[in-house]
Amino acid sequence: MTFTNQVSSIISLQANRLGGTLIFYALQQIIISLGITIGFTFLYADIDKSTILYLATGAPTMIFVTCGLACLPMQNSTAKTEGHLNFLKTLPVNRLSIVIADTVIWLAVSLPGIIISTLSAHFIFRPGYSFTWLVIPSCLLAALTCIAIGYGFSYVLKPETTLVVCMLCVFGALMFSPINFPMDRLPAWMQVVHNILPIDSMAQIIRSTFAGTMFSVDFVHYIKLSLWCVAGYGVVAIMINKK
After folding, report:
1. What is the pLDDT of residue 47?
2. Intervals of the chain under pLDDT 50
3. What is the reported pLDDT for 20?
4. pLDDT for the residue 243
5. What is the DSSP letter of 157?
6. In 3D, which of 136, 110, 127 has the Cα closest to residue 33?
7. What are the C-alpha distances in Å from 216 to residues 101, 184, 210?
8. Which residue(s) pair with 211 in the sheet?
9. Do 35 and 116 touch, CB atoms closer than 8 A?
10. What are the backbone dihedrals phi and psi of residue 197, each rounded to the nearest 5 degrees, phi first?
């Protein structure tokens, strides 16, 4: 069996196991993204186009965070508890194919929310999107970074601890991360923290590619995300090959 066939077989196995759960997760991402793009506008008595654009370009980052840092690790923890991960390791396939298959699945889960929220914002608010050629590479890098980190800590931590970390990631990103508001509104110490964590970099590279005429980004953010992504998948590679 070729490596491509191995990945395809694992995708089919995982999709059959999760079934409608994946559809539920995709719907969840759609609701969250629409909540940010449309629902957050209700917080303002008088909202302008620039604020709408800021919210609309922040929604994709939030989708990647909830999908990669919450849904995936929680599902991975369930698989650990049920013994499904140990079962996957017994299959006559390259263990890297398991990681790639799961990555493909969760990329697919996050895609509908981004498309629907972007189209909804465009047709309802006309915020002024101006996509650049880096939009797909940037979204892919942000998504892979979240998946790598979420996959990594769900392998390392116990299921109970993973659940707590997932909740912290989601609520921390939603309320205390510069995704839907500028970094300078945060206290100085939180700005220092976010200069290390990857979430601000995700928001900046995505925002700059969804609205290139309004926002720009330093290339250092791409380097920082790449380092986090490599570190996450490095942990996964070590853990999944552990006997």
Report:
1. 85
2. none
3. 84
4. 63
5. S
6. 110
7. 33, 16, 10
8. 130
9. no
10. -70, 160
Assigned token pair, 75 = 């599902």
- The residue type of 49 is K
Q: Which amino acid is at 204?
A: Q
Backbone angles phi, psi at 118, to 5 degrees: -65, -45
Token pair 């599902």 is at which residue? 75
pLDDT of residue 165: 95
User: Which amino acid is present at 60?
Assistant: P
CA distances from 176 to 145, 191, 213 (A): 19, 10, 26
Q: At residue 130, what are phi and psi to the nearest 5 degrees?
A: -145, 85
* Angular region, 160: left φ>0, alpha ψ -120 to 50, beta rest: alpha
Tokens representing 48 are 């302008």
Question: What Cα–Cα distance (Å) separates residue 164 from each residue in 45, 62, 134, 158, 214?
Answer: 35, 18, 34, 10, 37
* CB-based contacts of 159, cutoff 8 Å, min separation 6: 77, 78, 80, 81
Residue type, 177: S
Residues 236, 153 contacting (CB under 8 angstroms)? no
Residue 171 has which token pair? 């609520």
Q: How many CB atoms lie within 10 A of CB 240?
A: 16
Residue 8 in contact with residue 94, Cβ under 8 Å?
no
Round to whole Å and give the CA distance between 27 and 46: 29
What tens digit of pLDDT does each residue of 33-54 get?
Answer: 999 999 988 888 788 888 999 9
151-162 residue pLDDT tens: 999 999 999 999
For residue 46, what pLDDT is reported? 83
